[in-house]
Amino acid sequence: MRIDPRKQSKTDNYKLLIGSVLPRPIAFVTSKGPNGAVNAAPFSFFNVLATEPPLVAFSCLRKPGGIMKDTARNIVEHGEFVIHIVDERIVPLVNETAVEFPAEVSEAEQVGFTLVESAVVGVPRLAECKVQMECQLHQHLVLGGSLKEPNSDVLIGEVVQFHVADELIDQGRIDTMKLQPVGRMAGATYSKRGELFDIPRMSYEEWLEKKRNQ
């Protein structure tokens, strides 16, 4: 089946994208609102962009009418935020923060997360999360839609401090099985880690040898 995205609705394209790009890691983001309340919200359009400096980014789709969501507005105004990695223990609480709380209400505190002071940025972290990344805004991009009604805000953050639970670190690496990360699928479906397998990357010489032996 061939589908031309220009000939169908934004909603239909959204369904194809979230049903194809799977599983998607979840950025659980805290930011500080205009009245000082700590906003917390999950975003599954999230990934790593660079390693020097360490850059991560997530896309925050706008509300109808091209209105920025609280998280994007807070980050653009204050220039700081914290990204937390979602794991199996906390995903029920993370899901609750997606409720449309009023802008002046701290979702994190309402659902039961514990706020702790960050080391570098002014936005608090969530103690229950095993991996936390304090970020300073590196770049803000407005994408899609039209000048009057953009589709999304892309927030690129430079990680200025990592916080990783001690039990996760194994020879400088994070133990995936101990982290138990959760990803986002289509609709209301989440994914846990499944069977893991390794496929070493071959050198060109190894690839040629393999072909000769086939």
From TrEMBL:
Q: What class of enzyme is it?
A: oxidoreductase
Pfam families in alphabetical order: Flavin_Reduct (PF01613)
Taxonomically, the superkingdom here is: Bacteria
Enzyme nomenclature, EC number: 1.5.1.-
Domain Flavin reductase like per the UniProt entry, residue ranges: 19-177
Is Oxidoreductase a UniProt keyword of this protein?
yes
Q: Which GO terms describe its molecular function?
A: oxidoreductase activity
Q: Which UniProt keywords apply?
A: Flavoprotein, FMN, Oxidoreductase
Q: Which family, according to UniProt?
A: Belongs to the flavoredoxin family.
Name under which the protein is recorded: Flavin reductase family protein
Q: Which organism is it from?
A: Laceyella putida
